[in-house]
Amino acid sequence: MIAVYPGSFDPITLGHVDIIKRALNIFDGLVVLVTENPRKKYLFSLDERKKLVESALKNVDRVRIDVHRGLLVNYLKKHGIKVLVRGLRAVTDYEYELQMALANKKLYSELETVFLTASEKFSFVSSSLVKEVAMYGGDVTEWVPSEVARALYEKLKEGK
Ligand code: ADP
Questions:
Q1: N or C terminus of the chain: which is more exposed, having fewer CB within 10 Å?
Q2: What's this model's pTM, rounded to 2 decimal places?
Q3: What is the DSSP-derived secondary structure letter of residue 118?
């Protein structure tokens, strides 16, 4: 069975990579879907986010990377995929994730959302934390793949 792991991945962190590897222990294949929501402001463009996901997963088999703008369930229906993977870090994620899972189920009744718990090693890591720490010159190399750390420092240098 193939599942989809959707997210902003702005940028991808080792927390995301951990969820991806664990999802691959359960599913035959995984589509990592980089999404674009017009209401969100991103540091990296959709194309940059996709390229960083590709470089982070270059040695990982059975994974496909794709991008999508618009309603997630439209992508799932179009590709005949009925399982969504999401990660849960702390109770603070729960309310939002529950709301999305229920809404998606309403929009696509055959869909199931599977939650994987974050590894405690990365449970405090988020893309926003990584951006904030990098912005102030802090070391993020233990939280993101090396290409992402490089891209972050480059991007923040450009912005100055
Ligand atoms: P979105 O904007 O769709 O929430 P994110 O890239 O922030 O996109 O997150 C995608 C998914 O990955 C979410 O389910 C989120 O809870 C999960 N996630 C993010 N960081 C981690 C982490 N460190 N460990 C486990 N799951 C995580």
A1: C
A2: 0.96
A3: P
